Amino acid sequence: MARTDRDRWDAKHRALGTGTSAPPDALRGHLDLLPSSGRALDVACGRGSVAVWLAGRGLDVVAVDVSPAALAAGAELVTREQPPGRVRWVEADLDAGFPAEDDRYDLVVCQRFRDPALYPAMAAALAPGGLLVVTVLSEVGDTGGAFRAAPGELTAAFACLEVLAHREGDGEAHLVARAPA
Ligand SMILES: C[S@@+](CC[C@H](N)C(=O)[O-])C[C@H]1O[C@@H](n2cnc3c(N)ncnc32)[C@H](O)[C@@H]1O
C-alpha cells in the first residue's frame, strides 16, 4: 500500500477515535455458530470493534491492520471494556500477503475489506472445523464500482468450505462458512 493511502486511513481512524465493540455483521442471527474459545483472526480489523467483541466472548484474537491509529484505538477499547480474552494487535500491510501464514484459527473474520487475492489465504488459515465470517461491499443492490464484489463472488471463492449462511443485498455480501473437520 502506498504511504499516502496508509496516511489517509490513519487520519480517518484518528478522526473517528475509539469505537465500541460489536459482533461481525455477517454473524447477526447466527451467533450460535460462534466458538466459545480458541483463536480468532480479524483481517483489516480497523478500530477493533469486532476484535474486542470476540475477546469479550473468550476468544484469543490476532487483529491485523495497516493503520497504527486504528490499532491504537483498538488497544484503547480493550482497556475500556476489559474483555476476558486477549487481543494481539499486528500492524501489517495485507497487500504484501498474509502475516503468519502458518497459523491456523478457529475463526477468521474479514469485514468491509475486500481483496480477492487474499481469499485463498483466509480459507487456508482456518483450523479444521473453523468458521469464516466475511462481509464485503457488493454490486447487488448498488450501482456497482471497482471495489464491490460481483454477485456470487463469496460463494464461488469459498466453494471449498461448507456455506452456512449467505446473503447479498443493499450493496453488501455476507458469508458464514465452515472448513471441513
Ligand atoms: C472499511 S475499514 C473496515 C474496518 C473493520 N474491519 C470494520 O469492519 O470496522 C477497512 C480497513 O482496512 C484497512 N486496510 C486497508 N488496506 C489495508 C492493507 N493493505 N493492509 C491492512 N489493512 C488495510 C484500513 O486501515 C481499515 O481499517
Task: Provide the descriptors you would attach to this structure in a database record.
181 residues, alpha/beta, Rossmann fold, 7-stranded mixed sheet, 5 helices, globular, binds S-adenosylmethionine
Structural class: alpha/beta
Number of helices: 5
Beta-strand content estimate: 25-35%
Radius of gyration: 15 Å
Any low-confidence stretches, pLDDT <50, length ≥5?
none
- Morphology call: globular
- Main CATH class: Alpha Beta
- According to CATH, the homologous superfamily is Vaccinia Virus protein VP39
CATH architecture: 3-Layer(aba) Sandwich
Bin the helical content: 25-40%
Quaternary state reads single chain
Q: What is the makeup of the main sheet?
A: 7 strands, mixed
User: What pattern of helices and strands is seen along the backbone?
Assistant: HEHEHEEHEHEE
What ligands are attached or bound here?
S-adenosylmethionine
Gap between N and C termini: 35 Å
Number of strands: 7
Mean pLDDT: 94
Number of domains: 1
CATH T-level topology: Rossmann fold
